[in-house]
Queue: 2 jobs
Job 1
Amino acid sequence: MEGIFTFFGAISHNHTFVFIAHMLLTAIIVLVIAKLATRSLKTVPTGCQNVMEAYLEGVKAMGKDVIGETYALKYLPLVATLGLFIFVANILGIIPGFESPSGNINFTLALALIVFLYYNFEGIRKNGFKKYFAHFAGPVKALSPLMFPIEIVSHISRIISLSFRLFGNIKGDDLFLWVLLMLAPWIIPLPGFALLLFSAFLQTFIFMILTYVYLAGAVLLHEESL
């Protein structure tokens, strides 16, 4: 956001540079976390390995409830990576002197497109091109000319839903933090930081669970038809 101090903004006032710098910093932090978690693997995990294993178990349990254990494990790398990347990006904006990349529509739109393209690819690969798109026409053939375009628009709207939900909430959180720090820069904002931390968790969870839901809708067509 213009007018707010950031460390990268002190190097260059170009907003594109600031955004890319924070996005690269997010990626570096995620890679460092992954490296620390896998650097010295132990049978009885400790430290970062323990935290990451608990996180992965949580993501797997989330997916198991939505798509079943087999598919939850299959798509665990995608969903867990998205979750970690989004969460670090969200948290970065809470730290004074940094800006959240997820407060930029380009960032959230790119993630939404990844999910959209991947779940459609998986749906076609699992069910075949004809069966997958035939599902869009609905169970009643007479209504297929009406249902097919509605389903197409519905799926495309998921890109907007995923990207704007994350972008809008994090952008709002950034503005809230900005106003809070201007009005009361010392001890009083601490409850606000707790609220922003909860929001960072919540928005990450929503993006992850929706990714599993969209994947379930794409690959489990045979179960829907039973």
Note: Residues 119 and 215 are 5 Å apart (CA to CA).
Job 2
Amino acid sequence: MTDYIRKRVVVTGVGAITPIGNTPAEYWEGLSSGRNGIDYITHFDASSHDCRIAGEVKNFDPHDYLERKEAKRMDRFSQFGVVAAKQALADANLVINELNAEQIGVIIGSGVGGIKVMEDQQTVYLNRGPDRCSPFMIPMMIANMAAGLTAIHTGAKGPNNCTVTACAAGSNAIGDAFRLIQGGYAQAMICGGCEAAVTPLSVAGFAACKALSFRNDDPAHACRPFDRDRDGFVMGEGAGILILEELQHAISRGARIYGEIVGYAMTCDAYHITSPVPGGEGAARAIQLALKDAGITPEQVTYINAHGTSTPANDSNETKAIKTALGDHAYKIAVSSTKSMTGHLLGGSGGIEAVATVLAIANEQIPPTINLENPDSECDLDYVPHTSRAQKIEVALSNSFGFGGHNVTLVFKKY
């Protein structure tokens, strides 16, 4: 795609269901105040698990947005995705009708889809036999259903897809939606990520591969990105959705514009199924290629919403990647991990973190990295510890990295 035919793309709406708030306003208030959303698991009895903490969504009632019968036929991850999409459309004041439905699409990523339904139906199968499994099991379980159901509930008939790239899925969804609008294949896209994997089997599996924090005696301080005492990530759940629009389409209807998305790149480490390549070479290339795609120099970057998982491997390697990609300017920008407050939403993380990045630009305020009490000597950048910072943001990056070596960087700028 050559530069002269690229269309400009802006963000006109956001939706968020998170461990620190179930609307975009609540989410932003939680981020800017440094609220902790991590506590003991309540979704199931985790007493026998090595990890007993998570960032659960609290006080979420799908019936506020969905009819009871419809909600019952959705896994929790799809409920999150559909509700956040409805929030985002309302925030954008974008009405889908017969005239524009074919020009509005949906891409919503998820890492594991309806794992809760799969676990529940396996129990039914083992205890009651195969003929007692629910006829809704498959459509509730498959990862693409959040995107499909969002289209069904909103009437969006344009391009529809689901990215499944582990913890990079939400960011891939946003980047791919950006490309479709840039190329003229859609006027607007509903995009982001959702996940609801705080389940017995999922928590056990991540714990078995030593990815999770086992700081069960202190949930509030368990997620501590860039801190020398970090011992693993804390699982979270929820959804983050953006409404992306072609600029002239947004202007023509008088839309409020949060910011502009100007760059997207994805790379692969081609190294290991769970560990990042030492030195963060693949992540550095994603940052560099995204900046090149945006026509942005390193010196223009003000803020990075880091992947920042609180794992020993990610945080030091991401720091190295940022320094490789941005050179000496890396020491002059603000970097923060909002996962310190929400936990890690896996495939939903890129969605809520893109929302956080866009709101940071719009509100001229950088959310903090909480729990950063003893900085790691290998993590020597400005991570905005403890409290948010008022600062005008011209250009911001959002990083997402996933198992399998997936690396994604999105570039947003002030409109």
Note: The first helix runs from residue 24 to 33.
